Amino acid sequence: MAEDLIAQLAIDSWQSHGLTCVICPTWTTLAAYVRIPEGHVDEVDLKLVDVTYGPDARGWVGFDTRHVGSYWAPDDLMPYIDAGLWSYLAEEARIAQTFPGGGHRWTLTELREATDRLALALSGQLR
Question: Which of 88, 57, 56 is nearest to 71 (CA)?
Fold first, then answer.
């Protein structure tokens, strides 16, 4: 089996509702993943949860935070994203803040909470 790149790239890892959760950097944002235990992937109905990735061969399912009107403060991403993209991120944040309600600013705390909600929803489907 190929290397577990999600586990290798994780900048944060924890257990929630009996499942492994991680946060990983992507090209310009952060994404969150929850691992469905081996042998249980077929038990979950991913239509019942909001995922944009998976399940992959290791059972990871997840979501990204790169959506229209959503943004991260560039300072929050600086430790994880290539410095050459910081001005791009600042412009993306400026544009997102022009959306009704000022757009949606992600934080690490909120991303962890959303990941915990995904873990809860998935764990509730496991036998």
Answer: 88
CA 123, chain centre distance (Å): 17
pLDDT tens for the 127 residues of the chain, in order: 567 999 999 999 999 999 999 999 998 899 999 999 999 988 898 888 889 999 999 999 999 998 888 999 888 998 998 888 889 889 989 998 998 888 899 999 999 999 999 999 999 998 7
State how beta strands 19-25 and 12-16 pair.
antiparallel
- Concatenate the DSSP letters of all residues of 107-123 into one string: -HHHHHHHHHHHHHHHH
Q: Determine whether 102 is exposed, middle or buried from the number of CB atoms within 10 Å of its CB (0-12, 13-18, 19+).
A: exposed
**Of 90, 91, 88, whose CA–CA distance to 75 is shortest?**
90
Rg (alpha carbons) of the chain, rounded to whole number: 15
Is 118 within 8 Å of 63 (Cβ atoms)?
A: yes
- Greatest Cα-to-Cα distance within the chain, rounded to the nearest angstrom: 47
